[in-house]
Amino acid sequence: MNKKITLYSEAAYVIGITILAFATALMEKASFGMSMVVAPAYLIHLKMSQYFAWFTFGVSEYIFQAFLIIVLSIVMGKLKKGYFMSFVTAVIYGTILDASIWIVGLIPFDGIAARIVCFALGIIICALGVAMLFMTYISPEAYELVVKEISVNYKKDIGKVKTIYDCSSCVLGIILSFIFFGLGHFVGVSFGTVICALVNGWLIGRFSRLYGRVFEVKDALKLRDWFTK
């Protein structure tokens, strides 16, 4: 039996959140439609940035995620310290996202082929990042937190829960697109969004199982109990 590679959960957190932000920046650059998970926040950003220049994609992300955390707290009937830390994660993610968009913007992408490659890489890296965040005790973004909490509390398969959540988020994105930009205008939501909604949960499930076979997750810091209470 091959020995598993030790991966500290704190490192999984840093890696996961960084590559997830980069993946989102790649998909924004491809312009085939954003991931269904971030589509609502992206549309809010597009609308609000018309009036407030400081309302970046990253800022929109942690404001929208704050709303999701409030809803989750109401549904679960409790407010964990981990929920507050999820907002901290959202702020960190939003900051890295804005930086990633700036970096990706420096790379010359010309032609449909480059956009397709950019989009495909975005989907794959996004799934890798989310699966990595599921391995850590540190509170993930609100998107992953909602999926993780529902999966654990109701004992449901995390891949299936993720797919249902993604499809619901996709529908919300379409509704916001119509509200903000008029009927028939699919701004920020396109065929790429639908593709993400259909395959993202499946990919995350596969990568999660792959990580389980390759890595042995350990904690470098004794903070798990603090985050999970």
What does this molecule look like?
- By secondary structure, the protein is mainly alpha-helical.
- The protein has one domain.
- 72% of the residues lie in helices and 3% in strands.
- It is built from nine helices and two strands.
- A two-stranded parallel sheet has the order 1-2.
- Helix 2 packs parallel to helix 7, helix 3 packs antiparallel against helix 4 (81-106) and helix 3 (57-76) packs parallel to helix 6.
- The N and C termini lie far apart (36 Å).
The strand count comes to: 2
Structural domain count: 1
Give the overall pLDDT as a whole number.
87
Number of helices: 9
Helix content: over 70%
Provide a brief overview of the structure.
By secondary structure, this protein is mainly alpha-helical. The protein is built from 9 helices and 2 strands.
Any key phrases for this structure?
72% helix, globular, two-stranded parallel sheet, mainly alpha, 9 helices
